[in-house]
Amino acid sequence: MLTPAELVWVIAAVAMGDEGAFERLYVATRAKLYGVVLRILRRQDLAEQVIQDTYVKVWHSAGQFNPAVSSPITWLTSIARNRAIDVLRKAGEPSVDERPSAEAVTDSADPLARREMTEELKRLLECVGRLDADRQKLVLLAYYNGWSREQLAQNFSSPVSTVKTRLRSSLMDMRECLGL
Amino acid sequence: MSYGDDHIAFAAEYALGTLDAGERAQVETMMAVNKDYAAEVQAWEFRLAALNQMVGSVEPRPIVWENIRAAIDRARPRATLAPPPPVEAEVAQPAPAAQQVPAAQQAPIIADATGAHLASKARRWRSLAAILGAVAAALAAMVALEVLLPDALPDDLRPKVRIRTVEVKVPAAPPAPSSQYAALLQGRDGTAAFILTVDGATRSYTLRKIDADAEPGKSFELWLMSDKLPRASSLGVIGEANFTTRAVLASYDRDIITAATYAVTVEEAGGSRDGSPHSPPVFTGKLIETVPAGAAGQKQK
Predict the structure, then answer these.
(1) Which residues of chain A are within 8 Å of residue B56 when distances are taken between CB atoms?
(2) Which of residues 32 through 51 in chain A touch B, CB cutoff 8 A?
């Protein structure tokens, strides 16, 4: 597994057209990105297409990665996530009933204990933790599942306008907490 | 352009993922024309991205990699670009070797210029990003050649401003590493318009036009945009020739130069009169280091 510093160099090499570096980047990061995207799209065919589009975009835009403001895996997953959500928003939405409940947000029994958490993750979870229980679920379901306001409204049996208001107030509360 | 609470909420919801398709397109457009806004959105993405650490990894099928490779190969130019001879090795016999380098670079680029169909043009421009490596390294080496043996370059490539050699000591300031940097200046849709190279020691820049012509009565102007500076700084009007070289970056700190965003705007002919850009950036890019300081130093020996 490549460290973040190594990934920065690999991406710089990709920016210079180094195909070997591009393959190393793919091998080091594909499973994480595919996991994130599959979670959002819930379909292998769509997830595969998004992963392909993501890495082709990475190949062509590696020169734009700025290590001063982002980390390699964040940059990569942002590209993948944005593509996945674009696909989801354009494809229309499946019924919310097909989706897992909020408790199954992560893929393991107790992820908070299992893995060593980075400082960023701890800080973020602290900030999310300050929201009331419903808003925490709102934010996490939105992020992990890529749900739209309409799907969230269905899940919480609330009007869409209420969901929108709550999302915004949650994000503004987190903004202060996160120092943004 | 400043943004109020609504824009901030949009930026946050974009990163969270809850905007609809139309709103997402709006945010992406705003990010393209406003660097501060793009930074705001990316700051949100960066903070929220920690959540992905808890998502389990899943291996995709091998065919995914095959499809990625195929897509990249399809985007290449049909004529393979033979890598230009490394210029460093030919410093001893500069004249003939230096002649070959620009020709090798120019041949595939100019040969493709007859393509009229937009789709094939777009493919060519994207493929230029993929071959940036060979071109940028060669261009960066050319910048080194400018530094060491300016007379070895053919006439039209010789820098208009005489550049000092790297051996000149820089007083007071910490010694500047003689590293080389390159950037591809691209439009929003990925079209590649210019290659910018910067010599880390002399801080001269060279802009190589790939395929961008200003409308009659207008000039392209190059700007340096840095959050360490209060406003965008003009680096000069871009000439009509394929190469434009200037030493104006000498007055900026290395840190500002290497971290800045470089942007090309469309100004009235002759450039902006008041030192401020008057169009949104049409092509932008950031520098990457193509030759680290240590390696560049060896060329002088």
Answers:
(1) 35, 106-108
(2) 32, 34-36, 38-40, 47-48, 51
Condensed to tens digits (0 to 9), the pLDDT of residues B140-190 reads 444 444 334 444 444 445 444 544 444 444 444 444 446 778 888 888 777
Strands (E), chain B: 180-186, 192-199, 205-209, 218-225, 233-237, 243-246, 261-268, 283-286, 288-291
Write out residues 234-263 of B within 8 Å (CB-CB) of A: 259
Q: Which of B19, B65, B286 sits opposite A64 (nearest CB)?
A: B286
Q: Which DSSP string do the residues of B181-248 spell out, in sequence order?
A: EEEEEE-TTS-EEEEEEEETTT--EEEEESS--PPTTEEEEEEEE-TTSSS-EEEEEPPSSSEEEE-G
In sequence order, the 6+-apart residues with CB closer than 8 A to the CB of A65 are A8, A11, A12, A15, A72, A75
Collapsing DSSP to helix, strand or coil, B264 comes out as strand
How much is the pTM? 0.53
Whether B180 contacts B243, CB under 8 Å = no
Tokens coding B150:
């300016």
ipTM: 0.88
- The residues facing A41 across adjacent strands are none
